[in-house]
Structures are given as C-alpha cells and as structure tokens.
Amino acid sequence: MEEPNAIRLVIVTGLSGAGKTQAIRILEDLGFFCIDNLPPMLIPKITELCQQSGGKVKRVALVMDVRGALFYDSLSEELRKLSEQGIKYELLFLEASDAALVRRYKETRRQHPFKGEGSVLEAIRAERKRLREIRGAADIVLDTTEMTVHDLKKNLTQIFGDGRPGFTIKIVSFGYKFGIPLDADLVMDIRFLPNPNYVDELKMLTGLDPAVVQYIFSYPVSNTFLRRFYNLLKFLLPYYIKEGKTYLVIAVGCTGGQHRSVAVAEKLAELLKKCCSIQVQHRDLSRGRSGEEP
C-alpha cells in the first residue's frame, strides 16, 4: 500500500549536451515539480519538504550534473543515503555519441563545462569518463543521438507520464553495420535467421511488410527462437522488477536493420505488451530500403 505522502522522485543526470534541459521541460509539462542544477547534498531537504506538502507535490524531478562542479562528486553518496533511508528514486541518465555532442556544441556555440585549454571532443571524453560510475547505477539510460525533441518527449511521456513508477520495455531493431545501440541492456543477434535480402521480390521491402514477415516465420527456426526468447524474458522480468529496475532496452539486430530485426521486434512487442508497457523503435529503418548486406 502506497504511503499518503509518498512522492515519485526522478534524478536526471548525464552528459552535457545530451538533452537534460529539454528533459526537465518535458517532465515539468508532465506535472513534475522540477529543479535544475541542484547540488546533490540538497536532495534530502527537497525530498523532506515535498513529503510535508500534504500531498500537493507528488512528482519531483531534480537535475544535477557537472555544472555543479565539486558538488556533483557527492551524488553517489547522497543516492546511497536515500536508499538507506528507504526513499525510492529513479535515476535517469542521458547520453549521446561523441559526434552528436560535438555537433550540438558547434550549433549552439556554447562552451562545454569541462572545456579548458583542450578541444570540445577532449572535454566530452573527460566528462564521459568522470560519469562512468553514475551511469552504471542508472535505472534508465537514454541515448539521444538520433532523437529529436519530439522523440525525447515521446520516450519520457511513456516512461513517466502516468505519474506512477512502472515497468517499461523498449525494443530496438538495428543493423550491426551501423553499430549496436549504446543504451541497450540486452542485445540479441538474429543474423542466423533466414534472410529476405536474398529473395528478389522481398529485398526492397522491410520487416513491416506482411510478405517479409510471412517469409521469415515460415521457417521453424524463427518460431522456435521467438518462443524461447520470449520465455527467457518472462523468466528475467520479475527479477529485474525485484531489483527496482523500471526500464529495459532490448536490442534486436540483423545485418542492416531492415528485415529480420524489424519483424522480430514487432512480434516480440506483441507478446510482451500483455505484461508491461512497450515501446518499439526501428532505429535503422529510415536508412533506406536497399536491402541488407550478406
């Protein structure tokens, strides 16, 4: 039973330029009481004040990052104290590729918080190294490299929009020739399944086309794999939830991210939607319908 003064506490952190400013605006629109650039040692005080609001403040989002300079180093310790006090929180970590972050800083002409005498790229890599530990502790890691503000809003709304902690699975189809998704928790290589790329009438289609789906799942190996992978996930999910995890990214990859990974991701989403909230992203589908490489 939920305590009457319980709040949903979200800690937002991550790499500079990865979208924390946009994230806090989106969370504010979702009804969160938001504070940006908060020194970590003030988390307990803010939490206490919100709990004493008589139920007027139910959702709180706090942003903290390296702009806080030396104060930021105490974040891990403050989060440990919250856990010891039995205060539940969700740690959201935003990141993006080095290339994307460099491009964003060039476009905005702002100076990176870590930039001294070195380049922006050197500052990004130094910050990434410094945040490695806190990233490893995150409940939710979002890679915003390919995201627009609209995409970010859609993701955050699906995760936080109902105001209650829940469990969300994001299934990402991708092509190995374009790289593995950085924010993936589980990665499944399905390049062993029959490849529609070698069928002339299917090559220019995608895994969203019925003909491609029918071809892939006309083979027993495809159906056996899907059933066993689904059963594995059914076994794992209760343990993830027990450990307090609220967001899981499953990446399903084929060669080019056009056929097999797309079809399997859709099938898997259909099966898993019975037990939790599902998001589906076909990361490389927009890269063209030229078919997969062998």
From TrEMBL:
Instruction: Give every RapZ-like N-terminal domain span.
Output: 7-161
- Is Coiled coil one of the keywords? no
Instruction: Name the residues that bind ATP.
Output: 14-21
Spell out the Gene3D superfamilies in the cross-references: P-loop containing nucleotide triphosphate hydrolases
For this protein, the record's InterPro entries field holds: P-loop_NTPase, RapZ-like, RapZ-like_N, RapZ_C
Q: Which UniProt keywords apply?
A: ATP-binding, GTP-binding, Nucleotide-binding
**Family annotation (PANTHER family):** RNASE ADAPTER PROTEIN RAPZ (PTHR30448)
- What name appears for this protein in its UniProt entry? ATPase-like protein
